[in-house]
Amino acid sequence: MSPSIYPQILEDPLRNRGTAFTAEQRRVLGLDGLLPPAIETLEQQAARSIEVFRRRPGALDKYVNLRQLQDTNLVLYYRLLVDHLEEVLPIVYTPTVGLACQRFHRIFRRPRGLTLSYPMRDRLPELLRNRRQRDVDVIVVTDGERILGLGDQGAGGLGIPIGKLALYTAIGGLDPGRTLPIVLDVGTNNEERLADPGYLGWRHERIAGAEYDDFVERFVSAVEAELPQAMVQWEDFATHNARPILERYRDRICTFNDDIQGTAAVALGALIGAARASGTRPREHRIVVLGAGSAAIGVADEIRQALVDDGLDPEQARRRFWVLDVDGLLTEERDDLTEEQRVYARPAGEPSGGTTLADVVRSVHPTAMIGLSTARGAFTGEVVREMAAHVERPIIFPLSNPTARSEADPADLDRWTDGRALVATGSPFPPIERDGRTIPVSQSNNVYVFPAVGMGVVAAQAARVTDGMLRAASAALGARSPALTDPTAPLLPPISGLRELADHVALAVAVAAVADGVAPERSEQDLHRRIANARWEPVYPE
Ligand SMILES: O=C([O-])CC(=O)C(=O)O
Ligand SMILES: [Mg+2]
């Protein structure tokens, strides 16, 4: 056998240390001459790498730079993420990751994760066995149909699971060698991609209906057979598939939908903080939701349950919501609503005077307005001023991603309400300047919970993800809102505090898993210890 061109260790991002290999290691491993002679510490490597990153001119260049590092040296990659989380998050994650999905086939260099293409549907167990990881704790899977607010990106959607799993490690502390990103490549209806000779996915219109459902079933069966211990996170599926898939599998495997349940858990956490900051109870609020997709209905459902927990009966709680989609308010007269949307349908003729957002705000005087519509700028000055005329501290959450799909810019919201608005966004925004103070904008993004849900599930060895576990995550998050002690503070803890927060949220999730009977009996103290022990840190092992 001829020797390989490179000793394997330099090619293995989990074991490679590059210039940090010691003289002794280089000699033993036969690396002398293959590396420049300088021997660096991890800190020196990290300092050099962040400089290189900062010199890259554009966001996509920065993204490519980090992806290369991820494919070369995982300890160094995660060192950068952990030490510069606030700076790199908008690159590894929302909003730049959306652009990376759109350009996936232009920036493709090395394979990461699995692409399960429809024509190989008879061979899914074999494809799963081809993975590079031996054991897998978490799978994030998408079918690329609803990537952030950017629609169908086909096989390029794989960028999202890659980004989510990077945060599972950087924030949640999961071992990166035990996570697996997957795209179900079932075609695309994106004309631009189909016409692009450079597109790398299966060049075919999307499979739908029974064939699609059968493919998803084959995927789940393959996971059950090959990776029965793995949690499966569904990500960025279109509304018409997201909810049915979740309902079909949530009692069969360990699984949750991040857009429905993760987004909702965080929005509820932020709302709990906002209610307290405005001296109100959740049950006092009148809530307008713009958007009626899976994420929007998920948020409404979660808040509705919280209103019940706060003392309303289910019918009263339901009547606190006005949900609108592109065709206006959901009403009983409409015959185009799904079962989940129908819960929020308002009786005919109520409110009077029109069903647009402006009409509804004028007649209802909402106290909270949540956007998950991907309709850029839908929270206009007119709508917001009208809302703010009737409530002391309007709660306004433009949650659509990426930034270019946000319903409003926080600086505008601040101006239109003379600084009275309690704001959280889905994508990152620069801080607001007010009265000589710089106030960070809270990013109510599912990143506040999903990495911790993963850690909680792994540490507790949970077999399912229950509603109780997600509600425990919301409560743990709401309890740590900086606005609880300072009404002018942001609603959510800072991004720089995400790792510490994740430990608390993971513990709450793990405790709830035991309480719900889906994990082995263990004390809180024991679970705490298991979380600490499971945490993977970006350092070179001794
Ligand atoms: O990825 C994000 O930033 C949040 C999310 O799940 C989505 O927008 O689909
Ligand atoms: Mg998503």
Account of the protein in words:
This protein is 44% helix and 10% strand. With 542 residues, the chain is of the alpha/beta class. The protein folds into 4 domains: 8-81, Up-down Bundle (Hemocyanin, N-terminal domain); 96-253, Rossmann fold, CATH 3.40.50; 261-444, Rossmann fold (3-Layer(aba) Sandwich), CATH 3.40.50; 448-521, no CATH class. The mean pLDDT is 95.
Question: Which features would summarize this protein structure in a list?
Answer:
542 residues; alpha/beta; Hemocyanin, N-terminal domain; Rossmann fold; 7-stranded mixed β-sheet; 44% helix; binds magnesium ion
Distance between the termini: 32 Å
Percentage of β-strand residues: 5-15%
Instruction: Compute the number of strand runs.
Output: 14
Overall radius of gyration: 24 Å
Looking at this structure, what is the CATH superfamily of the largest domain? Answer: NAD(P)-binding Rossmann-like Domain
Q: Which geometry do the CA atoms define?
A: globular
Average the pLDDT over all residues and give the rounded result. 95
Tell me the CATH topology of the largest domain.
Rossmann fold
What structural class is derived from the secondary structure elements? alpha/beta
Q: Give the CATH architecture of the largest domain.
A: 3-Layer(aba) Sandwich
Q: How much helicity do the residues have?
A: 40-55%
- Number of separate domains: 4
Largest beta-sheet characterization = 7 strands, mixed
- Spans of 5+ residues with little confidence (pLDDT < 50)? none
Text of the CATH class of the largest domain: Alpha Beta
Strands of the biggest beta sheet: in what spatial order?
8-7-6-9-10-11-14
Number of helices: 24
List the ions, cofactors and other small molecules found in this model.
Answer: oxaloacetate ion, magnesium ion
